[in-house]
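Q: What structure does this chain adopt?
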Amino acid sequence: MARLLIVVDMQKDFIDGSLGTKEAPKIVPKVAARVQEYLSAGDEVIFTLDTHGFDYLDTLEGRKLPVKHCLKGSEGWELCRELADIQGHRFEKETFGSRECAEYVAQGSYSSVELVGLCTDICVISNAMLIKAFNPQLPIQVNASCCAGVTPESHQNALKAMEMCQIDVI
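A:
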C-alpha cells in the first residue's frame, strides 16, 4: 500500500500574498522536499486549493474575513512556483476543509496519510479532522515542520488539538 501526501493550500496568497505570513515562505522548501521524497518513493501526492469567486466578500466567510484571497484564476490562487508543475490531483474547495478530498482518501488504499501546508490552524486542521472522520482506522500525520499557521501560537494550538484527536504530529 502506498502512502499519501496531502499538500494543503500552498498558494501564493497564503505565502506572500494578501494573507501571507512571515512563517509561510520558510516552509516552502521543506514542503517541496517532502513532495519529492514521496514521489521518489512511488507514493501519491495530492493538493487542495482554497478557491473563491469574485463574490467572496458577499459570502459568510468573506464577511468574517474581508480580505480577498485565492480568487479562482488569479495569481494568488495559484500554487507556489516550487509546486506548480508537480502532477497530482487537485481538490478545489470553497471552505476550510474538502469533503471531496476526505472521500477520495476513503476510497483509496493507503498505509498512511501525511498533511503539510497552510494554514495549520484553519485548513490543515479542518482537512485532517475530515479525513479522520471518514477514515477512523487510517494513520494520519501532520508534519509540523512543513506547516505554518496564522500565528506561531495558533499553529501550536492546532497541533495540540490534532494530537488530542489521535492525529500524529511529526
